[in-house]
Amino acid sequence: MQGACVSMLSVCICVSALLHSAISQPPTESDTYTECTDGYHWDPHTEHCKDVNECETIPDACKGEMKCFNHYGGYLCLPRSASVIPAPEPPITPTVSNPCPLGYEPQGDSCVDIDECERDEHDCQPSQQCINSLGAFTCQCPDGYRKVGTECIDIDECRYRYCQHRCVNVPGSFSCQCEPGFQLAGNNRSCIDVNECDMGAPCSQRCYNTYGTFLCRCDQGYELGPDGFACNDIDECSYSSYLCQYQCVNEPGKFSCVCPEGYQLLGTRLCQDINECETGEHQCTDTQTCVNIHGRYQCVDANRCQDPYVQVSENRCVCPVHKPACRELPFSIVHRYMSITSERSVPSDIFQIQATSVSPGAYNTFRIRSGDDNGDFYIRQINNISAMLVLARAVSGPREYTLDLEMVSVNPLLSYQSSSALRLSIYVGPYAF
């Protein structure tokens, strides 16, 4: 550095100028060794940058009453009354003349390259790598950085859309990330779908992989819970009372129908009465007859004829006319058995009475002779030889009725009247089916 003092009107102005150290300047990527900074020019004889005297090279460098004063790298315009006091010249150290170009040094009769990197005669930043070249050197930035002036600036690779989904820039590098449901491919940039079903997806039953996600589904009889993963049993029995004829039993993932004792399942939902009399699942004796009814069976005496009646066939009793007690009784009684369900809709036709023989010219009427004390039944005559027993009121079981249904025959031509009865045992089952 060289200083000069300028005095004007007893005022001393100190002007400082920086001496450009062209000799010690390292080359840059855009400079050559014959280029100098502004205010200097290259001296091929001394191979140094030499100050330009603008006061000589620039015509009328200072205007008006101003005087041009040259200094290192520039010039000053000062009043003409001003004077310049040169600063003491620095001591000149004799230098050894180097006959080789810059960046080289003599070795014997030849010039060899100076390895500035090895001698640490470079100005590379600590983060930069010095790379020697013939007559010069360069400062190289690490991967992921670019050189701006003398500094290394991080390259934002994410600007170039290297990643398919998300890019995360880090100093000197970058990383790609994928959205949930995807994972990085082998090139570390693309994203491929993840099959969560093969990686332990939390589905409790079925898992279906889709692009970027997955779906949980349930087996028949289950429904997906609020969390989208768990499968909860569907209580089908709570949806309808008509799923089963008797009773619905909910089970995990399904339901089943059950029937009461004395019934068996017909298909999957209906209940069918078991005919214990046909299957042999009864305990009637040899003197009894097994009568199948809804849900159970009944053992009745094989001979149900009561005095004065006598048995003439398996289910028919006759009152002999020679017995005085038979005069006011039906001539014959036929035994029949039937069963009906509880709470049957009414009125309901339940049993048809049919005359087996009719005398010519006879008129027949039908009535309930006995057994209907509460008026639960009535007779509807169809024609001269048949009538229908009708259930008049809904009844509940288990319950048993024994009705004597009488047919009275009147023949006015012969002045003859007779009657016969059908003794009908009606068993009301405990269930409404």
TrEMBL record:
Keywords of this entry: Calcium, Disulfide bond, EGF-like domain, Extracellular matrix, Glycoprotein, Repeat, Secreted, Signal
EGF-like domain segment(s): 113-153, 154-192, 233-272
Record-level GO cellular component terms: extracellular matrix
Domain of life: Eukaryota
GO biological process: epithelial cell differentiation
InterPro entries reported in the protein's UniProt record: cEGF, EGF, EGF-like_Ca-bd_dom, EGF-type_Asp/Asn_hydroxyl_site, EGF_Ca-bd_CS, Fibulin_C, Growth_fac_rcpt_cys_sf, Nephronectin_domain
A GO term for molecular function: calcium ion binding
Record's subcellular location: Secreted, Extracellular space, Extracellular matrix
Listed PROSITE patterns: ASX_HYDROXYL, EGF_2, EGF_3, EGF_CA
Family (UniProt): Belongs to the fibulin family.
Protein name: EGF containing fibulin extracellular matrix protein 2a
Source organism of this protein record: Labrus bergylta (ballan wrasse)
